[in-house]
Amino acid sequence: MRADARRNHERLLRVARAAFAEQGTDAALEDIARRAGVGIGTLYRHFPNRHALMNAVFQDAVTALLARSRELAEADEPCAALVEWLRAVVTHAGEYRGLARALMSASYDPTSALSQCNDPLREAGARLLTRAQEAGVVRHDVSIGDLLQLTNAIALAAEQDPRDDALADRLLTLTLRGVKP
């Protein structure tokens, strides 16, 4: 990338991150481009659609979730490790209004740019889930797809009542009681 293109790319990411935090993931792309000091065509040259921009914005969080899954992979209590990781996923999905909904829809669309976030998370979670299932502490009919959809649904539900900081954790705890044999 040329130096000016790299600067535009970095500025677009910085502005998009702030816009998504302030307004949710439905923030107007035109406003993001304008605030970054570029035209909408420049935004689309770097990020062909909203999901591509979201994928780029959320790569740091995905990297952190993947690193945490590797740390938890050898934990003495596989079920506790899985629950801790799922809590981190719920926290991430709840950081930006609209992200949980976008992740839920992307899980059904392998062509979505958000699949680049979803697929590695699915693999990381599957390893933790399999370990917990092999230890006999999680039912064998539970899938990582189900758990990720539940975590996104919990984040979406918690998004509806932002005054209740503990809602997502309570819902996750209640939900996970059903995965034990």
* Structural class by secondary-structure content: mainly alpha
How far from one another are the termini? Answer: 52 Å
pLDDT averaged over residues: 90
Tally of alpha and pi helices: 10
Q: What letter string, H or E per element, gives the SSE order?
A: HHHHHHHHHH
Radius of gyration from the alpha-carbon trace, in angstroms = 18 Å
Could you give the topology of this structure?
Elements: H1 3-23, H2 29-36, H3 40-46, H4 50-57, H5 59-72, H6 78-93, H7 99-106, H8 115-134, H9 144-159, H10 167-176
Helix pairs in contact: 1-2, 1-4, 5-6, 5-8, 6-8, 6-9, 6-10, 7-9, 9-10
Protein name: TetR family transcriptional regulator
Domain HTH tetR-type: 6-65
Keywords: DNA-binding, Transcription, Transcription regulation
Main traits of this protein?
TetR_SbtR-like_C; DNA-binding; 181 residues; Tet_transcr_reg_TetR-rel_C_sf
Concise overview:
Helix content is 71%, strand content 0%. It has ten helices and no strands.
